[in-house]
Structure formats: C-alpha cells, structure tokens
Amino acid sequence: xxxxxxxxxxxxxxxxxxxxxxxxxxxxxxxxxxxxxxxxxxxxxxxxxxxxxxxxxxxxxxxxxxxxxxxxxxxxxxxxxxxxxxxxxxxxxxxxxxxxxxxxxxxxxxxxxxxxxxxxxxxxxxxxxxxxxxxxxxxxxxxxxxxxxxxxxxxxxxxxxxxxxxxxxxxxxxxxxxxxxxxxxxxxxxxxxxxxxxxxxxxxxxxxxxxxxxxxxxxxxxxxxxxxxxxxx
Length: 233
Description:
Blueprint: H1 6-12, H2 76-85, E1 100-101, E2 105-106, H3 120-135, H4 139-145, H5 150-154, H6 167-174, H7 177-184
Helix pairs in contact: 1-2, 3-4
C-alpha cells in the first residue's frame, strides 16, 4: 500500500482559494472532513478500489497511513488528494481539510496531530510555494508528478520559508552519490560531470531550486559548456 504522508496534506492548503465544498462556494469556514463534499466515497474512488465504509478520513487510514514520519519516499495517496483538491476545478482552501491556528498548530480535521505551528505570514508564503508544486515548470512540480509530496523532501513538519533540504535527503531517493555521478557522466566529455565536481561536495540546492528555476552552477564559469537541468532552461 502507498503511504500517505499528509504532511503535504498539511501543505496542501498552501495555494488553494477559499471554497468550502466541491462546488467552490466562497467560505473559509472549516468543514466537517470529507463528508461535507463526499456523501458517497464510491463515486470518487479509483477503479478497482475496495469498498470503503464511512465518509471520513478514518475510513482510509486502515490501508493508507498518515505518514507522520515524513519519510523520503513516494506518497501516492497524499499526492493525489492534494493535486485533485488543489487543481483547476476545485481550488479548495486549506481549512477545508486542515485545522489551522496561527502560531499554534497546523493539523488535519478529525486527527489529533500537528505538523508545526506556522504563522499567518508563513502560510502566505507556503501557499505560493504549494501553488508551484501543483502546477509549475520547476523541480517541485516534477516531484508532484512523481508522487512525492512536501513531506518527501521536508520531513514531517510544514516547512517554514527559510527551510532548506540537506544533500542526504536528496540522496535518499536519487543516490547514493557514486551511482548518481555514474548516471550523469557525459559520454563525450566525462569530466564535465556536475555530480562529480572538481569543487568537491557541494549542496544539491546550488543547482536544483525546487520552487524556482534551476540553473547549472558550472555554467557561471564554464560558459561554453552545454548542460541542461530538470526544472530549468
């Protein structure tokens, strides 16, 4: 079963416009979980999905974990929920699914957990970042397409605006380093390998910007090189 790192569910709130139901009525009042929009889960379950009793999130949890550990791996359940509810047809506000008290807690309606304590100004930036994850040309959206939610990179708490990602987190999925370097070694010019740099170990985020255009750091000096990067030009 796919785990459901709802840390992103927490972050799913990020960019959504106020709407208390699937009909997108303008309201920011928290709703009573899934049942407010989905009286019958059978109408929204994927083809071939087992029957589900009930209409709340608790009905999903026997098979889909909330993923509170925030592990570096795919989370199809969480990713699909966020992309569906944040997509062009719904644009749900965070509080449709999440309980949020500025500076105190950010959790999930009906669950006694919290993914940190972002303030209003933090949430404003998080919403912009989440919009990028949903539908940008950057690395964050590439991760969304690969079923990796916010928790896959940032861990179990909602990332604050100054949060970064360590190399070890990236390499948990894309490494180990020697294998990554082997995959990116050019056939024609093997020494022009961005993952086996003469600069030694450098931060992945020097080149790979999740929520902005990625750029090859090597090209700052080696302007005659031809090197492309995912999420960049």
